[in-house]
Amino acid sequence: MLSVFDPRHTVAPPGYSRWLIPTAALAVHVCIGQVYATSVYKNSLIAHFDASQTAIGAIFSIAIVMLGSSAAVGGRWVERNGPRRAMFVSACFWATGFLVGALGIATQQLWLLYLGYGVIGGIGLGIGYISPVSTLIKWFPDRPGLATGLAIMGFGGGALVAGPLARQLLSLYDSDYNPANPAAVASGSALVGLFVTFGIGYFVIMMFGPFNVRVPPPDWRPAGFDPARVATRSLVTRASVSASNAVRTRSFWLLWIVLFCNVTAGIGILEQASPMIQDFFRDNGSTAVSVSAAAGFVGVLSLFNMAGRFVWSTTSDLIGRKPIYLIYLGVGMVLYALLAVAGHAATAVFVLIAALIISFYGGGFATMPAYLRDLFGTFQVGAIHGRLLTAWSAAGVAGPLIVNRILDTQGKPGTLTASAYRPALFTMVGVLAIGFVANLLVRAVPDRFHEPDRGSTSPVARATVTEPVALGPQSRPPVPEHVGGQTGRLWLSWLLVAALLGYGIVQTAITAAKLFTG
Fold first, then answer.
1. 3-state per-residue secondary structure call for 212-263
2. Phi/psi zone of residue 127: left (φ > 0), alpha (ψ -120 to 50 degrees), beta?
3. pTM (2 decimals)?
4. What sign does the dihedral 167-170-175-181 (CA atoms) show?
5. Distance separating alpha carbons of residues 221 and 492, to the nearest angstrom
6. Per-residue pLDDT tens for 45-70?
7. pLDDT tens sequence across 108-159
8. Which of 258, 265, 317 is nearest to 439 (CA)?
9. Helix segments in 108-120, DSSP class H
10. CB neighbours (10 Å) of residue 477?
11. Rounded Cα distance, 403 and 393, in Å
């Protein structure tokens, strides 16, 4: 039965629609994006285990570290075994992580929660995150930024779905739990039910990934696409670089610095979002921003985080990857400085500046796979991306550490004002400046790192048309009989993704409205 996951059975038949591939990626990424919603039940876990915030917060930290580690170590395995097997393995690890975590909650063994959600689930996170990247880029050589932006948008949207869903499930399993109260604590049995539900539900949804994903045949390209035109753009190569050679290049490590700096700055705001907006508008010990309004601010940031992943990454197809990172980092420096000196002027000003910053944060994640494809080719771009994600793991520690250490020197939580954040914000300006310079220094990869046997794919190979509807009426070729049968599958897949993300967007918009209504 498992032979269906063999890479030999993953090659797409003639006429296979490439627009099924983003649905496969989104099905996986929307599920694993749940990792950013762990704060919803953090207080309940603290109460259930009678543990400190640090002890429970370590669960998230372990998962993120394992994400980066498994993506780096497993990248080559993903390339060898193909996206279908990788997505299936990711679903198994992610679901098992929840079930082992549920056992830890039921038995009050915190180490099982570390092992389950943190280690096992974290491996599923890393494998799942990189599983569609290489395949998407191969299917969309004409629009790699759009393709990767669609997928990684799902990771940002995963928290939008999981946050409100977790609150509703906890209230269903525990009648005394009030989801409208940010300090509400659910019972241990409700937490067990939540983890089991997530484990089973996410496994089912993630299986749409292996069901839909295929790799294009050798030398395939979309109708009307000329690789020679793309290769004339700055930094875009038609050669191939292996993962082992990529880490020996200066450009790889410059991009590592770029990603590290962009994530470090953005995650510093995300981690402090709710108390930050309250502190910025604190006067004489009282704040003009209520707890519910602060939750609305977090909702606004979540929406911009998700939208930025798609909008900015798609924009990079038009203006290029290096210029878009100059915007992320250069304009980001200006925005951080403005937030420091003028953010306290009005709530609308603060929210607008912070939302733009977070949109750059999300866009930086989504654009990086396309940047790697430009520099290193498609040969092992998934494995290269996996190794680069160690910058994310490092930034996930550095960003909050920098901000929290600086704030600790300014006073106690609940007493801080806008001036207390200025040293941290100006520090982030410096961090972004380092990334800005690193991006300026990125150059094309020298020929000595190219794979001699991988750069010979014919640029004039006959195109295989998989999107007859995208052609003009006169040039539209006959549609193979089985292509019409894909229509229902295509609609069903996109409706599933739209329903999941639509639920999250609506629920988050309701929360975000509190920022303006109180």
1. HCCECCCCCCCCCCCHHHHHCCCCCCCCCCCHHHHCCCHHHHHHHHHHHHHH
2. alpha
3. 0.86
4. negative
5. 25
6. 999 999 887 889 889 889 988 998 99
7. 999 999 999 999 999 999 999 999 998 999 999 999 999 999 889 999 899 8
8. 258
9. 110-113
10. 10
11. 16
